[in-house]
Design brief:
Elements (H helix, E strand, L loop, with lengths): L1 H5 L3 H23 L17 H34 L16 H30 L6 E8 L2 E6 L4 E5 L3 H7 L21 E4 L4 E7 L4 E5 L4 E5 L5 E5 L7 E7 L11 E7 L1 H20 L1
Parallel strand pairs: 1-5, 4-10
Antiparallel strand pairs: 1-2, 2-3, 5-8, 6-7, 6-9, 9-10
Helix pairs in contact: 3-4
Amino acid sequence: MYRARLGIRPGIWLSIAALLAAAGAALPAMADESPRGGWGLLNLPVGVTSISRDVYSIHMMAFWVCVWIGVLVFGVMIWSIIFHRRSRGAVADVTLVHNTKVEIVWTTIPVLILVGMAIPAAHGIVLIGDDAHSQLDIKVTGFQWGWQYEYVGKGVSFISKLDAKSMAASELDSGISPYSVPHYLRNVDHPLVVPVGTKVRLLVTAVDVIHSWWVPDFGIKKDAIPGYINTSWFEVDANKPGVYRGQCAELCGRGHGYMPIVVDAVSKADFQAWLKREAAAEKAAASS
């Protein structure tokens, strides 16, 4: 009775129900594949730095503003389509009426929304650009296809490239299933090691073409441009040690997909011990 009164064919309702059922079945399966678990695959990560949390909060604010605008606009449209259609006796009125008050309202509200979104966005931009008073400087150099890390003033420098297992599995007719390789194309032979609770400044450049250093959980992505040094920073929360993965985010050639980034965030004591071992090993290698 209700469908007949609305004048909407039953087939349309069946199609909508089928689409909703398919979406309901697909989304949990997609979410299960997320390395963050749950619905993490469908959203930005909250991350483990102040920058990433700020970016996430701005993103969610903008998302919900867009959701409510969409609900309002499409709600009015759907209501108008259903209750003001010709089959219900509606007649188009071609008379256009100017209403100054309405125009002021629908101009003022978007301006206020944009200003309200611009203030936290500007705060985020200032936060991302504030790389002063760093406690550890690392020069990051991109090349085809890998990364070189130099701990400025610490006597430690190394190259980080795709790990051997991923490289072997990626070769044509290798016979190795990528599913058998842990973190396929997302692991390296020598990860970047940083201490938690420490402001780390990155000096990012490149030697050949443009690359981009990106770790989603840190909320930063910085282009590596030949002949130019870009700066960025991050500070992993003191209670969030662990391994965080990223990749080159700038199409840089046929090996672009083989430039993962792995950052091992450890305690300050473990970092100092690691740094001492690395510096001693490099000194011994240079003298031999």
